[in-house]
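Protein entry
_____________
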Amino acid sequence: MSPVCTRAAAAASGRPNFLFIAVDDLNDFTGYAAEEPGDFLQVVYPDPAVRARVRRRLTPNLDRLAAQAAPFLRAYCASALCGPSRTSLLTGIAPHVSGYYNHSRHFRLYETLRDAVTLPQQLKAHGYFTTGLGKIFHTARGTVDGPLARDWADARNSWSQWVNHPIGCSGGQPGKYSPPNGGLMQFGPSRLKLEESADWLAADFAA
């Protein structure tokens, strides 16, 4: 999970706060959208009573958040791969225009994305404090040299504050949120306490 938070520099301005949560592989399987036309849960659980019970257990925290917000229910994935999809969402430049289809290079190394203004970058330029952590922008480990080698999050451009924690198949990124019991992607039951996991720490930081 990757939360991105922004807050206005001047609280008295009355401007809204923004919370962006990127969740790999969630699709649209959320309780609050289950009754939207064409939702997949209606196919899997055609009985409304059964579907209602499933909804209450599916994404209760996101449902509570959605009840206080303005859900955007017509978003479409620009790419089947996580990095190009998120980069497209946060720059407004589709992969077929940028040429960014995989994790072989940092997105700023593509000519069409080198000077692109990201959503958090735009907010920061207009007085917002932007902060985040997790996996937002992405590059494969060990494929970038120079100043971009450790700036996979685009921290220099997009964020007032970026909090690193390990990410990737070997948990190779350095940072404050390193779990004490090894990498993030080990198979089998985790011995890590829930309160020490990267997702818990990310959510706690955002809250």
